[in-house]
Design a protein that fits this description.
The protein is α+β, with helices and mostly antiparallel strands. It is built from two helices and five strands, in the order αβββββα.
Length: 147
């Protein structure tokens, strides 16, 4: 039972560290694609929503878009992206940014670097607080439980 006071906070620390790294990598990929990537005209092939409900009855909806575009060398690429604008519907033409060496990581999200930095900063700040709480809990548990 005493090990739970170690395993749980260490698990929280590992999870928050992983999520921070994942968010930084996602932000970096998006910014690099916007700044250094090639641009092409793409088309929205499909849109759909997924709904998630929690135990309290709250429902969240995620919008998915499936896009297709042609690279400069003539390769047709199809990709899916979440959280795009709800105003984009099937058949709409969109601007697609992609890296020539990784066209499978293309994006059709509008270029909003400041917004992305603020969102990522908020998420990372929350995860850092979560990490700090786990460290504090682990250190406090050491004073109450002998290992």
């Amino acid at each position: 039972m005493d090990m739970m006071f170690v395993v749980v906070p260490v698990g929280f620390m590992a999870l928050s560290g992983y999520l921070i790294c994942r968010r930084v990598v996602r932000l970096r990929r998006l910014i690099v694609t916007w700044r250094r990537g090639d641009h092409a005209e793409g088309r929205c092939l499909r849109t759909y929503e997924t709904r998630h409900s929690n135990s309290k009855g709250h429902t969240s909806t995620t919008i998915h878009h499936v896009y297709e575009f042609t690279t400069r060398n003539g390769e047709r690429i199809r990709f899916e992206e979440t959280d795009g604008p709800s105003t984009v519907v099937e058949g709409d033409f969109v601007a697609v940014a992609y890296l020539t060496d990784r066209p499978d990581r293309a994006t059709a999200l509008p270029r909003r670097e400041t917004r992305e930095y603020l969102l990522a900063g908020g998420e990372i700040a929350f995860l850092v607080l979560f990490f700090a709480f786990a460290v504090h809990f682990l250190r406090s548990a050491q004073t109450f439980v002998s290992f």
